[in-house]
Amino acid sequence: MIRDRIARFLKTGEGDFAELALALHAWQREHNADLAAFVGDAPLPARWEEIPAVPVSLFRDLALTSFDPAETAVVFRTSGTTSGRRGAVRLRDTELYDLGARLHAERVAGPIPARGLFLHPDLEDSSLAHMCRHFVRDAVWLANRDGFDRAAAIAALHAVRSEPVFVAGTALAFHDLLELDAGPFALPRGSLVMVTGGYKGQVRGVPEGELAPAAQSAFPGAHVVAEYGMTELSSQLWATPIGSRFRAPPWLGVRAVDPWTGEPAAQGLLRFYDLANVDTVLAIETADVGRLLPSGELELLGRLPGAEPRGCSLTIEELR
Amino acid sequence: MTDAVRRGIANVRTLDAAPLSQGLSAANATRSLHEACDLVTAGLDVARRDWDDPPRSVGIVAAHGVFTSPLEWMALYAAAGTAVRVKASGRDPRFVTAVADAFRAEGLDVTASTDRHLAPVEALLAFGADETIAELRTSVPAALFRGYGHRFSLAIVHDERFVEALADDVARYDTRGCFAPAAILTFGDPLRLAQAMADASAETERRWPRGVVDPALGPEWRRRVGLARVRGTASLGDAWAVLTMPIEHFTPVALPRMTVIHAVRDLSVLEPYRRWLSSCATDDPSAATAFPRVCAPGQLQLPAFPRRHDGLPMTIER
Predict the structure, then answer these.
(1) CATH number of residue A141's parent domain
(2) Domain check: are A44 and A123 in the same one?
(3) How many CA atoms lie less than 13 Å away from B310 in the CB half-sphere?
(4) Which of the residues in chain A have pLDDT under 70?
(5) A57 contacts in B (CB within 8 Å)?
(6) Testing the interface with B: which of A58, A65, A308 to mutate, by most B Cβ within 10 A?
C-alpha cells in the first residue's frame, strides 16, 4: 500500500522521494475524483516537478479527498479571511500527519518538552492546535475564542521554574506579548519557543524583521525557532534558530515558480509536494512567495502581492 | 474651452497607445484609445449642456487599470473651464501625464502628478476601492466630494446570438475595470454558449491579442480553471479561457480574457451584490433592472459619454 511505503519513508528514509511522489500522484488520480477532474486528460508526469499543483484556495470549494468523504474523521479548516469562506481539509486519520510533524520537529529543533504553553486557542478544527496537542502531554491554552489573555500568558511564562516548556504561538501573538515589554522570560534549559506564521500586514509596532531578535532576547535560555505550515499541508518547515532559513523534511518537495506561467523560478510562488498528504492531494500551490537556495533551504518572502491575506496568524486576530 | 479640449483629444488620439496602456497589446491599446477619444469628442457638447455651475477646480484621483478612463473626466471638467488636478496611479502615470500635457499645450489648466498630497481643490472625484474613497473623503479637504467605488458588470443572455459582441466586451482592456464582464449569466444552454464563446474568443484573440497579465492573478486563474474542470467545463486557448460552472461558484471579479458562464433560472443570485452592480450587457433589458446601466452586448466597455456613472452624475455642481 502506498500509505505504508510513505510511512516507511518517513520513519527510515527507505525509498526514493521522486518515485514515491509519482506513485502517490498516480494513486490519488485513481482515488480522488476531484483531482482526477482537475488534471483532466493530462498524461501522468514523468518527473515529480511536473505533478499538477492544486491551488490551496480550491479547498474552499472542493472536498479533494482521496477516500470516500463519508469516512472523514478529522476536519481542519483554514482561517478564511478576506473571502469569508473557510477551506476544509478532510482526513481519514492523522497518523501520517502526527508522525511527520514530530519526526521533523525533533530532528531540526531537538526534543520537544512535554509541557506546553500555547498563545493560540485550542480549536478542534485548527491544524496548529492539533499539532501542539500532539506534541505535549500537558497543555495550557492561553487564548480562547474571546482572544489572547496577555496577563495570563505573562504570569504563566514567569511561573515556569524547573521543567522545560514548549511555548508556541503565532507571530501576531508573540508581537503582542513582546510589545508589553514584560520579559525577559527566563525559561529552563531545554525549553522550545515556536513562532509560526507572519504578520499578514495586521499589526503596527515591532517590525516583522525585528521579531526574531526580539523573541530571542525575550526568552533567554530557550531555543527559539520558527515554523511554517498551513492547513493544506501535513508537513511543516522549521527555521532553527528563528531568523534562519526554513528546512523542509525529506518527504516534502518544494518548488518556486513564476506566479503566472508556473515555470520554475529561483524566487517565486511556492508549491509543495507533501508525501504525508495521502488523504488529500500531494501537490499544492500556495499564495506565498519564497526563494529556494542551492542548499535546499527556503527563504520566505511573504504573500504574493495582490493575493489575499490568510493563514493561521489571522485566526487569533479574527477572534478579537 | 470645448474646442481646445477637442484639439487636445485629437493630439492624444495620435499618440502611440501601447506604452501608455498599462500593458495592453498594441492593437488593443490603439483601438481602445481611438474609441475613447471618439466617444468623448462626440459627447462634449452634450456634456456641457445643463451643467449650471461647475467647480472652479477639481481633483481627480484616478485608478489603475483602464488606461483611457481618466480621459473623459479630464476632458469634461477642462471643457467646463475648471482647473483639473489629476492624481495618477503611481504604478503607471504615463497616459494621464500625456493627456495633461496635450491639454496644457492647448492652453487648458490641467496638471497631473503621482503625489499623494493633492493641491487644494474645490471638488474632488475619487475612483478606487471603497476603503480608498473613504480615506480620501476624510484626508483631502474639498468642499465637494464624490466617490466612484469599485463595481462589477455582467452579461445576461438567452442564447449564443451575441457571442462575437460579448467576446469583444471581454477582450477590451483585457477584462479590466468595472465595465468588464465578471461573468455571463444565461437562461439558455451554457454548454452551447460556451462553445460559441470559445470560438469567438479565439477569433477575437487573433485580432486583439491579450497584453501583459498581472502575475499575481495566476493562482486565481488556476483556481477557476481547476474548479471549472471539476464542476463544469473549461475551454482554454493560449490567452483566453471560457468556463462553465454552477452559479454557486460565481465570483464577482473578472480575470483577463476569462469568460465564466453560469446557467441561472432567475437573477436572485445577484441580490447580495446589488450595491456593487455597475453595468449589464443583455439581449433582454427587462431582466436587468437591478443595474444602473444596461447596454447591448458589445457595448459594455464603450459607455456613453456623458452618462450617469454607476448611477451617479459625472458632473458636480458648486
Answers:
(1) 3.40.50.12780
(2) no
(3) 18
(4) 80-84, 198-208, 306-320
(5) 219-220, 223
(6) A58
Residues of B in contact with A306 (CB under 8 A): 214, 216-217
Q: Is B99 helix (H, G, I), strand (E, B) or coil?
A: helix
CB contact under 8 A, A262 and B226: no
ipTM of model: 0.87
Q: Is the peptide bond before A184 cis (omega within 30 degrees of 0)?
A: yes
Whether residue A84 is contained in a domain is answered as no
Range of the domain at A140: 96-245+307-319
Residue B123 cell numbers, joined: 471638488
For residue A17, with 0-12 CB atoms within 10 Å meaning exposed, 13-18 middle and 19 or more buried, which class applies? middle
| A241-300 confidence digits (pLDDT tens) | 998 899 999 999 999 999 999 999 999 999 999 999 999 999 999 999 999 999 999 999
Residues B56-65 have a mean pLDDT of: 92
What's the total number of domains in chain A? 2
Domains and CATH numbers, chain B: 2-150 (3.40.605.10), 152-295 (3.40.309.10)
Tell me whether residue A275 is in a domain: yes
Q: How many CB pairs under 8 A join A and B?
A: 54
pLDDT tens per residue, range A73-82: 999 998 765 5
Q: Give, for B111, the enclosing helix (H) or strand (E).
A: strand B110-113
Same domain, A132 and A205: yes
pTM, to two decimals: 0.90
With H, G, I as helix, E, B as strand and everything else as coil, classify residue B260: strand
Q: What is the pLDDT of residue B93?
A: 93
User: Is A172 part of any domain?
Assistant: yes
